[in-house]
Design goal:
With 457 residues, the chain is of the alpha+beta class. It folds into three domains: 91 residues, Uridine Diphospho-n-acetylenolpyruvylglucosamine Reductase, domain 2 (2-Layer Sandwich); 119 residues, 2-Layer Sandwich (Uridine Diphospho-n-acetylenolpyruvylglucosamine Reductase, domain 3); 184 residues, Vanillyl-alcohol Oxidase, Chain A, domain 3 (3-Layer(aba) Sandwich), CATH 3.40.462. The protein is built from 16 helices and 21 strands. β5 and β6 form a beta hairpin. α1 runs antiparallel to α3, α8 runs antiparallel to α13 and α9 crosses α12.
Length: 457
């Protein structure tokens, strides 16, 4: 460490105390990046692990006074470099702030700290007959704070929406250490600008969220499950498009291509049919049985080679687990074959799903790449995963997929965020006026630019 850095750490220790600081290089190394690929990261000055809002405020006041950049980190499960450290900055890890403060059964609300694991919250409210719908693939280890930062979605969002649809209010700390409270508890309320929605999805660039008030729903009925097998992605995509056009809203509509299915079988031995594209649908509520019957007939019309409908909870859980481990299974294939992997996250209007799928197939062929395709087919959000040996070729294919989604009226990121991976692409998606407004918002919240520099803007 240089003398300047040593002095800064000493000053930080005096301001915060030893209990909140991590400076051992071996330990700091575990906090320097998220799970993204091909994104840069630096070496931070220190890691700060606060236990309270007051701790966060103290850390930000210090950083603001010393012009030291701050990167906020949740569980580190991000896939776009949004939590990657910068040289000479602080990493603010919120994993200690993991308390479910309150579950208000009568009001159907929960108040939680940002480090609460999403799956733990879902289980806690389920014990009260309530339901927290957002269900990211990483639900077992991602955090509510990270979900809020990226406005995470998941497998239930086709019917139930994304994280932002359930955030009623926030407590957050601004870059200069001031604490702000946004949102309200009544069902209706339009006083002032919607700062809550502005902070949701801001990827740690505007403020540090320290408490979240979430809307809950009554627990739904046990869903019925349909699994349809297709010989190719185009037929599967056409089935998904018909489901959207029919006005049926499944509680889940997921897709895995044959590459992904084979990888899942190799990893977990689930005995799924191989050589086919699987579409997994669930329907809940009073019309579930009738909706599943409509889906079954639609799948058969689009040439499904096999369709199975079940109300067995264990079978449904197994199929959901197969979908959850899709990325992990493809990562293992890459490792076993001496390749690397790169995950994309694009979304298009549902009626253009068939075009997106066809474009991905063409891009895979044009670049001679294996691309495993899985994702949330019900809302047009797919995660093409490139397995590659040549980084230049992979990036060219990645860009081609992202450009194709934009050309179809889609977006460069459906739920993972912009992070560092897609900064250039955000500039292509926003028109010049929108881009100017984004810059202005950032300047109002963070005039010295210390929060998560290099992310989004």
């Amino acid at each position: 460490m240089s003398t300047t850095a040593t002095d800064l750490v000493g000053d930080l220790r005096a301001a915060l105390g030893d209990d909140l600081l991590v400076t051992d290089p071996d330990l700091v190394g575990g906090y320097v990046r998220d799970q993204s690929r091909l994104t840069e990261h630096g070496t931070p000055l220190a890691v700060v692990a606060p236990r309270s809002t007051d701790d966060v405020a103290a850390a930000l006041r210090w950083a603001h006074a010393h012009a030291v950049p701050v990167v906020t980190r949740g569980a580190g499960s991000g896939l776009v470099g949004g939590a990657n450290a910068v040289d000479g900055g602080l990493v603010l890890t919120l994993h200690r702030m993991d308390r479910i403060v309150e579950v208000d059964v009568a009001g159907a609300r929960a108040v939680v700290q940002p480090g609460v694991i999403t799956g733990d919250l879902r289980a806690a409210v389920a014990a009260h007959g309530l339901f927290y719908p957002p269900d990211p693939g990483s639900v077992a280890f991602c955090s509510i704070g990270g979900n809020v930062a990226t406005n995470a979605g998941g497998m239930c969002c086709v019917k139930y929406g994304v994280t932002g649809d359930y955030v009623l209010a926030l407590e957050a700390v601004l870059p200069d250490g001031r604490v702000v409270h946004t949102g309200r508890l009544p069902v209706k309320g339009v006083a002032g600008y919607d700062l809550t929605s502005l902070l949701v999805g801001s990827e740690g660039t505007l403020a540090v969220v320290t408490e979240v008030t979430l809307r809950l729903l009554p627990a739904p009925t046990t869903p019925g499950t349909l699994v349809a097998s297709f010989t190719g992605l185009t037929a599967a995509g056409a089935f998904v498009a018909e489901v959207a056009a029919a006005g049926i809203t499944p509680s889940m509509l997921e897709l895995m291509d044959s590459t992904t299915v084979t990888a899942v079988n190799a990893m977990a031995g689930m005995g799924l049919d191989e050589g086919v594209v699987l579409v997994l649908a669930q329907c809940d509520g009073p019309g579930a049985t009738a909706d599943l019957a409509v889906l079954e007939k639609a799948a058969e019309r689009h040439g499904a080679v096999d369709v199975a409908v079940s109300s067995d909870a264990e079978e449904a859980a197994m199929l959901l687990e197969a979908r959850r481990i899709a990325l992990t299974a493809l990562e293992r294939v890459a490792a076993d074959t001496g390749r690397q992997w790169l995950l994309d996250d694009v979304a298009v209007p549902r009626e253009r799903m068939v075009e997106l799928v066809a474009a991905i197939e063409r891009i895979a062929a044009d670049h001679d790449l294996t691309i495993g395709v899985f994702g949330h087919a019900g809302d047009g959000n797919l995660h093409p995963t490139l397995l590659y040996t040549d980084e230049t070729v992979a990036l060219a294919a990645f860009d081609a997929i992202t450009a194709a989604a934009l050309a179809m009226g889609g977006t460069v990121t459906g739920e993972h965020g912009v992070g560092r991976l897609k900064r250039v692409w955000l500039g292509r998606e926003l028109d010049p006026v929108a881009d100017e407004l984004h810059t202005g918002v950032k300047r109002v919240f963070d005039p010295t630019g210390i929060l998560n520099p290099g992310v989004v803007r």
